[in-house]
Design goal:
This protein is mainly alpha-helical. It has four helices and two strands. It has a single domain, classed as Rossmann fold. The chain has a two-stranded parallel ribbon.
Length: 115
């Protein structure tokens, strides 16, 4: 698991970004190592996924969690924040020809600004 932020960067997140970038290099090397065993190794690079952790973070960290959620949503092109199902679809066995790839699942955040 990496992060779409390796392509955009975040203020005061140098260590976070460095570890997520290392995950991409590790994915490529591991894929070469495990290909002879017919195992796929891919990295998922999610954007903001509205998981339980994010909901708790918004409630605990902001006076107005809905306003904070709207701010997160403004960084992407998709009409809604992503959910766990979006990550699951990208990592499914139906993607059986995806080997050693870095799959960006971010609602268009890294594609550009929505304004």
């Amino acid at each position: 698991m990496s992060s779409a932020n390796v392509h955009t960067g975040l203020v005061r997140r140098t260590a976070y970004s460095a570890t997520k970038g290392a995950t991409l290099a590790m994915t490529k090397s591991m894929q070469v190592d495990y290909a002879p065993y017919n195992l796929r190794v891919n990295a998922l690079l999610p954007g903001t996924i509205l998981a339980l952790f994010v909901g708790k973070y918004l409630r605990d960290s902001y006076d107005n969690p809905e306003e904070a959620k709207d701010t997160l949503h403004q960084r992407q092109l998709a009409p809604e924040l992503g959910g766990s199902k979006d990550i699951a679809h990208a990592a499914s066995d139906e993607a059986c020809y995806v080997w050693g790839s870095c799959l960006i699942v971010d609602g268009g955040t890294t594609a550009g600004k929505p304004y």
